[in-house]
Amino acid sequence: xxxxxxxxxxxxxxxxxxxxxxxxxxxxxxxxxxxxxxxxxxxxxxxxxxxxxxxxxxxxxxxxxxxxxxxxxxxxxxxxxxxxxxxxxxxxxxxxxxxxxxxxxxxxxxxxxxxxxxxxxxxxxxxxxxxxxxxxxxxxxxxxxxxxxxxxxxxxxxxxxxxxxxxxxxxxxxxxxxxxxxxxxxxxxxxxxxxxxxxxxxxxxxxxxxxxxxxxxxxxxxxxxxxxxxxxxxxxxxxxxxxxxxxxxxxxxxxxxxxxxxxxxxxxxxxxxxxxxxxxxxxxxxxxxxxxxxxxxxxxxxxxxxxxxxxxxxxxx
Amino acid sequence: xxxxxxxxxxxxxxxxxxxxxxxxxxxxxxxxxxxxxxxxxxxxxxxxxxxxxxxxxxxxxxxxxxxxxxxxxxxxxxxxxxxxxxxxxxxxxxxxxxxxxxxxxxxxxxxxxxxxxxxxxxxxxxxxxxxxxxxxxxxxxxxxxxxxxxxxxxxxxxxxxxxxxxxxxxxxxxxxxxxxxxxxxxxxxxxxxxxxxxxxxxxxxxxxxxxxxxxxxxxxxxxxxxxxxxxxxxxxxxxxxxxxxxxxxxxxxxxxxxxxxxxxxxxxxxxxxxxxxxxxxxxxxxxxxxxxxxxxxxxxxxxxxxxxxxxxxxxxx
Lengths: 317, 317
Fold this sequence. Notes:
2 copies of one chain form a homodimer. Chain A is of the alpha/beta class. Helix content of chain A is 34%, strand content 15%. The N and C termini of chain A lie far apart (46 Å). At the A-B interface, helix 3 of A face helix 3 of B.
């Protein structure tokens, strides 16, 4: 099974919001939108192996206060696959074009995980005035780099999952051996990564919906470091130009291996804050020590309350 | 001597056109402009180790028919240095922002050498309708990649010069040993690269003006392949969306070593044409077998006549 935009009938399912396409010039960017254009614009950026509809429940709650846009990044969901071109700079500039060409006015941004790193990218590198404030939801700052300035890198955190996905599923699903992934997982993944085997349900012969919509080349780009090769996180954070909220979810260091269980360590979150503040910007850190990785889908109301409250606090809403 | 924007007084000289700054959000892009806004817009992109003023003579001739913009790319001339971030995608997206934010309407583009590759990038990856037609002036297509699809790569062409510049001058001129470069050149450069020793004049203890304005980290980015790592030239050329003129200057293969003397081989130019035509676009190849690399400064009138005539032919002027 070669999942992806070339085989939509076996890949995609219906959702609560209609989907639209924006042409960046290089990729067809799939997105959904709700809320009114007379409200502030809010762009939602999914995490790795997520699609826009991970925000489906949150979008309903956000629609009262925002015009909400949730996108599929290149290589996610229904958006174009771009072999060899999955980098933070390309993900970020796609969104610059989307905000400029579709939203058409300054926007708040909030992204989860790798999407949180792209939220950071926008807060640092977007054109002047395009971004008003940025939420980083449990972002693997430093921890998704191959050679981070601080703490564990991708190979000492979630990287082995990405590597295994890429190995058994292949770039653009060219291998497609989900059963092989499941069989290999106990050997190639650290025990604490068992939750990535396909959800809490018993291992299934059918990959989960979100994985079908994921280009496993993303995994290779992060495992080999090419995604962030020209975007050092320390340098990026030192260039942030807007207020930032970082939500920090469950994490701990594995005593035996020193590996990072979770998206970023306390050290990494602290360094992110130091860099953003040194850049002259407000930085708020909110800890949710019991929360799983994707608060916006695990507890949409808490996510929406957190985002809305903070945007009110920074005086921009 | 640490040349660059941090030490303008020892680095820069006066030019015939006033210089301006455009803020991309990440970098301050230096540029000069002439001609009237009621003429078609033409963006000129310098080559590696060149600055905008390499186009000074050509600009005077172009001003009659175009509103002309000549830029310093990041790491060139007076534009910002961005350590670790010299990639084709970043160079290209800077210009997307410049065209969108400063020029404000569709533009023709013409670039020399690495600037010609960036002209190709714009012709493939710019937002819809932003670029009208593209001139690639003696562009090292394939030949400036580390792992090209066709023919010689950067290490079998001009790469050793970039490597030597980077070694003896250092990222952001951190080493600054011009005398060391001159002393090492006979050993580390192939004999046919002797012309890069600093011009036709006897070796000087003072680097040429264009080299002072060059961030030698560019050289490392091309020598190590990071500049094009996420921008395969074959894939880029297969995505071209506008008519293209490629001017092909002096080149030959060294019989002894198989190395490429010049910007691109006949094979590489032919493959570029096949890819652009397969993408549904007009592709014209004009050979100037006696011409040195930078026609626009070596023979500004011939360059201007060539560009103007071709733009007339493709029916856009």
